[in-house]
Amino acid sequence: MNLRDLRYLVALADLRHFGRAADACHVSQPTLSTQIRKIEDELGVTLVERAPRNVLLTEVGFQVAQRARGILAEVEQIKTLARMTKDPEAGTLRLGIFPTLGPYLLPHVVSGIRARFPRLELLLIEEKTEILLQQLHDGRVDCALLALPLNHEEQLHTEFLFEEPFVLAVPRNHPLANKTPLRLRDISEERLLLLDDGHCLRDQALDVCHLAGASEKDGFRATSLETLRQMVAAGVGVTLLPALAVQAPVPRSPSLQLRQFADSQPSRQIAMVWRKSAANVAFLQRLAGLISALSEPALQLDLDIPNEAAQTVPTKRPRQRQTPPSHA
Prior knowledge:
By secondary structure, the protein is an alpha/beta fold. It has helices at 3-15, 18-25, 29-43, 59-86, 102-116, 129-138, 200-212, 225-233, 281-295, and strands spanning 48-50, 55-57, 91-97, 120-126, 143-148, 156-171, 191-192, 215-216, 239-242, 256-259, 267-275. Strands 3, 4, 5, 6, 9, 10 and 11 form a seven-stranded mixed sheet that branches. α5 (102-116) links the parallel β3 (91-97) and β4 (120-126). α2 crosses α3 (29-43). The longest helix is centred in the N-terminal third of the chain and has 28 residues, at 59-86.
């Protein structure tokens, strides 16, 4: 049994298909199948249930694949340690980011990261929070930008980056479009458009709804912020949008009005997260500080609010090293 064979098993466990696993490992299907059989013969147990249209891992197969992931992750850490020892700011860094942040934050920070670390190859992986957490544990990403708080992640370090305010998005002809001042209780009778399950932004928006006494619009679940934006512009309803999603280079819609709350500023906290056992902690600290600094100008809201000057809202708090448990 060797590392290559363990990679084959992990790929099969992830993809549940011999052909797709072989493609992912850049080998032929017979080669991958033969090596899986070799592992089974060596261990004397069946790891995979082979059916005409489906591949299932046995209980022992699942446990072996989980341990194989840990072994492969440790090997990657050894490689990272050697690379970073030679040159901490060179090599490849796999950065995870979730979909309601990535398209809106990256235009503000990527060019600055490339200028500061010109020899760094930055690979961006966009996935939902739960998937990124699993990939962090498995060593498939080196660090990730996630919303706080996280739930019982003792093996991960969280470095606070910034606080991102939410704004209310309403159609131009909506009664709240010109209400001054706008208070959180003013949305108590509204039924907000929200994202589908699995998006941390959905949970954050629901928290605001519960605080304000608002509810979710039945029969509608969006898959992206762009869908929410277009539905509000079309007059379907109202929603909450994070600040970066309404800043340039995102175009403003003439059919949509953005409002801040005068008495409260709902927001979400964004952190950079990595394994406490990471070999390049000092570099990750420097990268986190850079992302925090590059993000700050984009978080200053400048909304076209009738008869109401936008209040200056603090977007950065003292850095936090501990993360309380939550559902995010």
